[in-house]
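Limitations

Structures in this collection are predictions, not experimental determinations, and the ligand pose is part of the prediction. Treat each record accordingly. The example that follows, with uridine-5'-diphosphate-glucuronic acid as the small molecule, is included so readers can see exactly what is and is not provided: the inputs are given verbatim, and the output is the predicted complex.
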Amino acid sequence: MKIAMIGAGYVGLVSGACFADFGHTVCCVDTDPAKIAALEDGRIPIFEPGLDTLVADNVRHSRLTFSTEVSGAVAQADVVFIAVGTPSRRGDGFADLSYVYAAARDIAASLDGYTVVVTKSTVPVGTGDEVERIIREARPDAAFAVVSNPEFLREGAAISDFKRPDRIVIGAEDDRAASVMREVYQPLYLNQAPILVTGRRTAELTKYAANAFLATKITFINEIADLCEQVGANVQEVARGIGLDNRIGAKFLHAGPGYGGSCFPKDTLALVKTAQDSGTPLRLVEAVVAVNDQRKRAMARKVTAACGGSVRGKTIAILGLTFKPNTDDMRDAPSLAIVAGLQDGGARIRAYDPEGMAGARALMPDITYTDDPYECATGADALVIVTEWNAFRALDWTELAARMPGRTVVDLRNVYRPDDIARHGFRYVGV
Ligand code: NAD
Ligand code: UGA
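Predicted complex:
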């Protein structure tokens, strides 16, 4: 099949490269000329493990191309995916759909022959109806269907999530469009990924419900962690104790500094807004949003408490800046709130992240960036692990002790066992 992927970001580029790898012919289109120039030059604009070789292989076999022009790609395509951003709208937290609607207008102008237009972006209920209206208004003559096909991949594991999904959700209003979508995903039958065909609105809401549920699970265990700290219990053992119950499940029960990233924060907010507008407030999700916001700031207070109640004039080494490991994505990373809180308290910040430094520099220009964990710890009063990169899992604590005048370690991801750190003379504070 011929596929046009509008938007070549974390989702569009991964999905486009994976569809090409399945044997489809894919053109990834982006309005950012620097992004397309980099891709045409063989450079990958984001860090996602395995994406460089996947893109290179498929470019070499002429299955994957790039363009800044929507028209050519759409005119030839059987299926056009919209994978542009849907960030929070300033003011009310609802999804900003301006990129989606702009893409819909561009697509409308170039449709040629029956085409399935698919929203892969995470979009509020009813967006598919509006995309259909925009295209129909611009092109009353065109033969097309609008389908919702939300994406469930995680950054850092995006390729395997895309190629081996737990399920594929297709929200289609007619059988022809649904059968085209089955053909697009036909290579995944080998993996026996269930395909759920639903109405369009149901598919749109399923995506938000999934993200809100996962965010709720994380927030639940984070609050249980706070209680554990007060009553002398171990949250990791509680998580294991409940997670072994299949009805609960072990995943997404790692307590930490609060969820971040480009999706959970904005999607929970947008869902809350949709629910309020519909007169059916989701009070549980509202609480999750509030608790998670407070938690990120509370982590700065936790570090401050570990430093004896004040960080004024102290040097704090931060290991890990991205919202999770194996990505360079800094959007809504907990590190941003934690660093700001510590700076407000008068701390000097040194930081290191394996892939997030370029993004972090743009957002936090006033901290000292270092080349590795050991340089980061040099001269520090306390070391804080914010993101659990593998590179931080086997640190040389003898070397760190030699470089740090202070002896405090705050491990916000519970990477280490307290005793292992304590034996090097450090005071260890986990979650
Ligand atoms: P992104 O910001 O990385 O990429 C979006 C891209 O779209 C950018 O490169 C931008 O230049 C381009 N763009 C914007 N308007 C355009 C237009 N009119 N024509 C062509 N290109 C245009 O965003 P992302 O993280 O890939 O997310 C995209 C969507 O997928 C969002 O709705 C998000 O919620 C959803 N999603 C993201 C993830 C994830 O892990 N990042 C996972 C599942 C779903
Ligand atoms: C998340 C979902 O997992 C994907 O299914 C979804 O497609 C995506 O959002 C999206 O809609 O964009 P992602 O944000 O890439 O994926 O990463 P996650 O692994 O879900 O982590 C999100 C945040 O939760 C991170 O800050 C992470 O550290 C935190 N987290 C996750 C925890 O604190 N504890 C956990 O047990 C799991």
